[in-house]
Amino acid sequence: MKKLINDVEQIVDEMLNGMTAAHPNELRRLEDTTVLVRKDAPVQGKVGIVSGGGSGHEPAHAGFVGPGMLDAAVAGEVFTSPTPDQVFEAIKAVDGGKGVLLIIKNYTGDVMNFEMAGEMAEAEGINVKQVVVNDDVAVEDSSFTSGRRGIAGTVLVHKIAGAKAAEGASLEEVQQTAEGVIKNVKSMGMSLHPCTVPASGKPGFTLAENEMEIGTGIHGEPGVERTELKPAKEVAQILFDKIQEDMQLQKGEEIAVLINGLGSTPLMELYVMNHSVAKILQQHELQVEETIVGEWMTSLEMAGASLTILKLDEERKKLLHAPADTVAFKR
Amino acid sequence: MKKLINDVEQIVDEMLNGMTAAHPNELRRLEDTTVLVRKDAPVQGKVGIVSGGGSGHEPAHAGFVGPGMLDAAVAGEVFTSPTPDQVFEAIKAVDGGKGVLLIIKNYTGDVMNFEMAGEMAEAEGINVKQVVVNDDVAVEDSSFTSGRRGIAGTVLVHKIAGAKAAEGASLEEVQQTAEGVIKNVKSMGMSLHPCTVPASGKPGFTLAENEMEIGTGIHGEPGVERTELKPAKEVAQILFDKIQEDMQLQKGEEIAVLINGLGSTPLMELYVMNHSVAKILQQHELQVEETIVGEWMTSLEMAGASLTILKLDEERKKLLHAPADTVAFKR
Description:
Chains A, B: This is phosphoenolpyruvate--glycerone phosphotransferase. Chains A, B: Pathway: Polyol metabolism; glycerol degradation. Two copies of one chain form a homodimer. In chain A, 32% of the residues lie in helices and 23% in strands. Chain A is an alpha/beta fold. Chain A folds into two domains: 8-181, Rossmann fold (3-Layer(aba) Sandwich); 185-320, Hypothetical Protein Tm841, Chain: A,domain 3, CATH 3.30.1180. Chain A has a six-stranded mixed beta sheet with strand order 1-2-4-3-5-6, with helices on both faces. In chain A, strand 1 (27-29) and strand 2 (35-38) form a beta hairpin. In chain A, helix 2 (84-94) crosses helix 3 (108-123), helix 4 (154-166) runs antiparallel to helix 5 and helix 6 (232-247) crosses helix 7. Chain A is globular and about 55 Å long.
């Protein structure tokens, strides 16, 4: 295993310290936790937003902490849910009196631990709501999930719910807006190479030199099909078709598109992928309001990409364009 | 070779089209060229700034085109200098009457072709100046270079010269500011895994499972030492020591730090690296004014990282913090 690290046991701790060292004016680590919060948390009179999950998906989630997006990110061990007490600390740290929304990716451990933390906070008089993101259309259930998995579409939930909260909306309103994004965002991914969880030291799965996997999850969970290597345009068509089967997008509909690299796929390839995706969207006469290309929800050094499509309405469009000032996402 | 592409011959063309498809309000491709310019180029009354070089270093260079940084980026084939006629087209497209500065990374082909383009433009009455970035302290000469190579420090030249031009400075002033950055910016890199140029289909070099290379260039040029795999803190120390040997930074000096991923090194590892770098800088009682962590000057899917240190003065500090609104770098 070739990694630029010091100690497998300290990797999350050192990453979090490396982040606060790099961004001391933006991020603050809650003492004795794996929680990074906005430097100025809690923001009084604003709904707090907490997300997080296993580490290894950077810049998710701490890269999205800041004005216009998240108030706190809770980091678990690599590909492992954070414990309820860590999430509970995050909730307490970001409650500015208007309650806290938890944005959870749909994995059994995350849902259980975030829910438990929410209950602990409610018992202390903090108003907590939650939403669960399940944008991955690849599989209905998986090794770590009941129902669909939450993947890169989560970043759009962070962005839009974050902007709604920044406007001063109530907890119920922010939750409703987040639910609206979740209902209208679908993703599908593929991989060319696996990644290696540091503590295990071995790749999570194997792919032959001429093979790719369609529908792989962001922890290397099995996808829907293992197939021969295909050109980007065929990959784009497969991902789009599966999403479209579910979304049934109509001519003229306004959408946002996110092309997400899984870790080691060069930006050059992601833009080639977008070239192929854009052609398909044009054939379907869809109105692309925004395209976001880069690494947002990674899987360590996995090679591959995912396509996310979000159906827009006027509110989502406005909130997507609203300011955000986080380490990884600014506008 | 596993890449998410359609056709090795079309990879740069499709990447550029994928970029303009994603960012139609920010970037415009000059017809029949590999040049991307600011949508609103030429900006009247502002010095135009042109950079570029071989492709495969994304987001460099087109990701840095926009207000506050570059006016145009010229893309060559992968790891191959663009031809003079392409650079000439870029110069003509961004001259707003105040002249054009070329920011060139020190590779023989780039220097020759950008210089020739500058002469072509001068012959047409456009005032052109140039600077050559040679921040890599690893080697004095290399297979592609006379003198030191230009690597990730180039991005700080883009940022600071771009901010100076945005202030309305003259061509001579922008050139002088850029020269000031170049004199005070040093970098050093290392790699864990090679990358594969699409047209060749084979890795540019090989490293055993327990080996790393110190001082590798961004095209996989040989470094200074091939050694056993070391922990991040030792790597950080080696890179810092070599830079410090050259810079002789004194206690209390203000610096900016850039930790650059070469392509497939996860952001998690880059932050672990920054954790180790920050400790060393603290031991030397250096004043870190700004730390930038991410992928800025990549080498396709090479694994590894580079450390860049820029010595600040009041002007460089102010210009580093000035607004920039490009696809890959915003503040």
